[in-house]
Each structure stands twice: as C-alpha cells, then as structure tokens.
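Key result, reporting period 2: structure in, sequence out.
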C-alpha cells in the first residue's frame, strides 16, 4: 500500500484535508466514547440505583450473522467472555485515542476496520423491516458497514500524514 507523500498531500485542497481529519476525529470519538461507556459501567440509573456492569454476553448471544456460532461458543465458556469483554474495552479505547490524536493512525484505522467488520459480521441486517428496540431499518447496509467504509477512506489517505501526532513525529525525525 502506498503511503501519502508530501507531494500527494499537497494535491488535496485544504477543505479535503479538513474533511478527512474531521472524519477521523468523529470516528475516533465514537470509538473512545464506546470505550468510556463500557469502562465506567456500572453506573447509576436516573432513579439512583446501580446499573449492572457492561458485558458483551447479551450482544454475542443474540448474534445471527456468519460469525455467530464462533461467538456463541465463546460465550458458553465463561473464561473467554471475561477476556472478550476486556479486549473490547481496551481495543476501543486505544483505537479511539489513536484516531483522535492522529498517533499510529494507520494501525488505529486498521484495528477500527477489523472491529467494525467483526461487529458487522455478527449482525448482518437481512430482514429489511423495522426491528423492536432498534434504530432505523436496514437491509445489508447499516451504520456499522458505512463506518467501516469511512475507515477505508481514512486508510487510503493515510490521514496521519495530514495532521496529528504522526505528522509531528515525522517532522521531528526529518529535522
């Protein structure tokens, strides 16, 4: 995969560079906030009672996509569930920080694409009708798939060479 050279980056207009960095930032925020929620839970309900700690068990048990059987098996053996829960929390946190800060951006984007692909393949929308307790009506294409393709755009433009700590580190090494 070719990396973005100084010349190629200069071919992008300021608005295009802004749009790519804005896209990276909002995706990073999404991952970071998902991590934050999963890490700080249990929290308190509006009524003042404690909420149960976050776990991926319900999500994985309800999976219907092509990878569902693998994760149904993983959930059935309790030790794996704890590992999955910790891995998801840490990965979401690291991916979010990577994309927000523009640090190790290509790795963060590749990891984001991996996780989004995994989430999509656990729940491929095939019904095309409204589902109870679900936002929107999807057939094949849903928000997870759209976000995955947005991450592919980030990977193709190597946004760490446009703005962020990756750019600052490269400049420091070249001086």
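The corresponding designed sequence is given below.
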């Amino acid at each position: 995969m070719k990396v973005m050279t100084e010349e190629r980056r200069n071919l992008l207009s300021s608005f295009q560079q802004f749009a790519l960095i804005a896209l990276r930032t909002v995706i990073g925020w999404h991952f970071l906030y998902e991590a934050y929620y999963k890490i700080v839970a249990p929290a308190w309900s509006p009524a003042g009672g404690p909420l149960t700690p976050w776990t991926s068990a319900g999500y994985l048990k309800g999976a219907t996509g092509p990878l569902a059987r693998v994760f149904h098996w993983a959930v059935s053996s309790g030790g794996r569930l704890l590992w999955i829960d910790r891995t998801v929390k840490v990965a979401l946190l690291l991916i979010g920080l990577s994309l927000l800060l523009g640090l190790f951006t290509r790795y963060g984007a590749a990891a984001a694409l991996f996780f989004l692909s995994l989430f999509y393949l656990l729940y491929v929308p095939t019904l095309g009708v409204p589902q109870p307790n679900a936002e929107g009506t999807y057939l094949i294409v849903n928000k997870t798939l759209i976000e995955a393709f947005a991450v592919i755009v980030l990977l193709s433009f190597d946004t760490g060479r446009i703005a962020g700590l990756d750019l600052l580190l490269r400049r420091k090494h070249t001086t």
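The chain has one domain: 6-174. The mean pLDDT is 88. This case is discussed further under Risks and Mitigation.
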